[in-house]
Amino acid sequence: MFASSLSRRAVLAGAAAVAGLPLLAGQAQAVGSSAYRWRNVVIGGTGFITGVLFHPSVRGLAYARTDIGGAYRWDDRSERWIPLLDHLGWDDWNLLGVEAMAVDPAHPDRLYLACGTYAQSWAGNGAVLRSDDRGATWRRTDLTVKLGANEDGRGAGERLLVDPRDSDTLWLGTRHDGLLKSTDRGATWAPVSGFPATPSATGQGVTLLVAAGRTVHAGWGDGGDANLFRTSDGSTWEAVPGQPSGTAARVPIRAAYDRHARELYVTYADAPGPNGQSDGSVHKLRTGSGEWTEVTPVKPGGTTDDGAADTFGYGGVAVDARRPGTVVVSTNNRWAAVDTLYRSTDGGRSWRSLKDTAVLDVSETPYLEWGEGRPKFGWWIQALALDPYDARHLVYGTGATLYGTRDLRHWAPQIRGLEEASVTQLISPPAGRAHLISGSRDIGVMYHERLTASPAHGMATNPVSGSATGLAQAAGRPAYVVRAGWGEKGNGAYSHDGGRTWAPFAAQPAIARDAPGPIATNADGSVLLWSFVHWDGTRYPAHRSADNGTTWSEIPSFPKGATPVADPADPTLLYAYDTDTGTLLASTDSGRSFTARATGLPSGDSQFELVAAPGRTGDLWLSTKWNGLYRSTDGGGTFTKAQSCWASYTLGFGKPADGAAYPAIYLVGSTEAITAVYRSDDEAKTWVRINDDDHQWGWTGETITGDPRVYGRVYLATNGRGIQYGEPV
């Protein structure tokens, strides 16, 4: 799904395989540019905050990292996060995951990021980005190893550290390639010889790096007799004597050094997390004497009041920079009793739970009520940071937001500017209160009446849906909207008020429970077509309902797993594209049966999209990753190839330009040498690029749509930077 783009030569070679299809007459590859202003549609967070780092020497300066959505700098004056990696383009999508970050206490403007989302064979190598201006500009060093910011253990760390003895020396812990070192401020890297642990192809490798005075400590997650090592001279490494052992201390997750008390606190778990942890502990090391003490607030393994097993690990840890013995730790993967923070002011001899007295205010991001009318304190709490200039300013990350407090009692999301949703569905209605309805992988469906505020009604509920697989609106009846996705009580729902409120289908096909897929409704909303695809790729027969989801019948002639597409003007017409055979199928009986029309179209491509132009019968566009863009004006009987585009990932339509008879077309694809975002006002004869090199957001090939009521406005789904919307300036 996220494989790197091939060269233009390779794509053109693929296009030659369908060269027999006619070209649209008179088309050229002219590409200009148009100035656009880009902003996030506001939801607020929505993804896993894996690390937060306050600068120890500058008041109000902090950084955050995410598993797939880049890194951010906190702007204290405006109280919002500034994205730092939006410049990363299509070919560099793998670098939007930030494995680790580091600052230099002696040089406040220096920032280092270790980037790489996946350590799998199909992903590219990682890179270290280094900045001398707090992330405004970057220099880059490509590594020969892979990093894993979106893999198990992503909430551990930090795995990147500026050496406390020498600002030119940096350390980088990897998952499968041991420990790396740079002596030229990250410009070049080499393996550390003599590091005592042996990496494996499947383990966690180095889980954390932390300085305790002038000594560097490294956590190790691959097992063995020791899992914490240290060097005091930068050359010789040894296992830390007396370190804890056993299941509850199998993997060091995070560490923090109390420089006044000269004590190093380490949190442990039996697995790297964020999932899969059932045991854990907290220990501290007196670095002067070498004495270890267990200071675990609550041992996992008890039971809750209702008899559930209270299993969890420990995650984040932070110490007060000015008050010795004041430390905060977090539990992680504690689903029965819900995760919490424990705070101690006496070096871990006694603790109190901050959750027990917490007052959560999520009025700025109401989706955090999760359809239950009240927010949760959080889950996946591994990022935890304490402001070195304000002992009562504490923040912690969750799988969806970043909570903060200034008094240790009242908490609210500190998330402005940070948007990390992985977006799969977009609809811009032609009428009604909302300009945008969206679906995402982690937070389901959102209804935006205002683009600049998180939806007042939160996420779509009834049922609560955690990941959207389909979203459709009846073109001739915009008040009727349907959705599909993984839900708590049913995987499909409908709305009669344009997506503001929802009701579950009265019934669903049995396969919908395990494999909800894309869904469509015909032009007048009288028919539903639901396709089914399991998360492992297995495809199942589609089903049809003519009574708003009360009863369903299988459609044997519909290609398994295909995305159903409704004709926007004729309720009896629906379409599907069979990617296996390169065949366009159509139904003229409201989806009861499908028959083949055009054949010999591109097949076997890794990404296809069939889109119907609004307000027209039979006007179809076929977007293909390797073979470009095709159009049919006869309901899929014949297609012609657009010469102006040689790679198309997704396209959509918006309000026509003044004087134009055809809708504006928006495209993520390649019309010349690069993959970018384009607009055409002349039916794909010519294109203008509407994003720029500072606004690329990595992988953006999921979906795009224009606004049918505002010319030039476009909504773009990203894989980790939420929904971007652009407008001409």
UniProtKB/TrEMBL annotation:
It comes from the Bacteria. GO terms for biological process: polysaccharide catabolic process; xyloglucan metabolic process. Residues 1-30 form the signal peptide. One of its GO terms (molecular function) is hydrolase activity, acting on glycosyl bonds. Keywords: Carbohydrate metabolism, Glycosidase, Hydrolase, Polysaccharide degradation, Signal. Belongs to the glycosyl hydrolase 74 family. This is 1,4-beta-glucanase. It comes from Streptomyces griseoloalbus.
